[in-house]
């Protein structure tokens, strides 16, 4: 009985992420960074809770409008540019 070889698919070079992977990393990093900044501003008193919630609701409603694809494509362009640097 002949031994069967298993084929494994290796991802792209581990030190050169794809644009999609970079976009996910940038999105998570951007959310964490802005969360830390907002938390700091609320803690120091420069940002009040209610205006912050209104701003967050504005962001959520903006994400469901026609400008959301433009914002997403802008972030993807920046991610592609950063991926091409490496």
Can you characterise this structure?
- It is a single chain.
- It is elongated and about 65 Å long.
- The relative contact order is 0.13.
- The chain is an all-alpha fold and 86 residues long.
- It has one domain (19-85).
- The longest helix has 26 residues, at 19-44.
- It contains three helices and no strands.
- The protein has helices spanning 19-44, 49-63, 68-85.
- It starts with 18 loop residues before the first helix and ends with a helix.
- Helix 1 packs across helix 3.
- Helices cover 69% and strands 0% of the residues.
Secondary structure topology:
Elements: H1 19-44, H2 49-63, H3 68-85
Please summarize what this structure is.
This protein is mostly helical and 86 residues long.
Classify the secondary structure makeup into a structural class. mainly alpha
Low-confidence stretches: none
Helix content: 55-70%
As for the number of domains, it is 1
Question: What value does the Rg take, in angstroms?
Answer: 20 Å
Summarize the helix and strand pattern as letters.
Answer: HHH
Number of helices: 3
Mind summarizing the main beta sheet?
Answer: none
Average pLDDT number: 78
Categorize the overall geometry: elongated
How many strands in all? 0
Assembly status? single chain
Beta-strand percentage range = under 5%
Fill in the keyword field for this structure.
86 residues; mainly alpha
């Amino acid at each position: 009985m002949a031994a069967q070889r298993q084929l494994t698919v290796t991802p792209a070079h581990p030190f050169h992420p794809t644009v999609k992977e970079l976009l996910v990393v940038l999105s998570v990093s951007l959310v964490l960074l802005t969360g830390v900044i907002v938390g700091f501003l609320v803690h120091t008193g420069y940002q009040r809770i209610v205006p912050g919630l209104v701003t967050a609701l504005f962001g959520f409603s903006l994400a469901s409008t026609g400008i959301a694809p433009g914002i997403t494509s802008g972030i993807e362009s920046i991610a592609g540019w950063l991926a091409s640097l490496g």
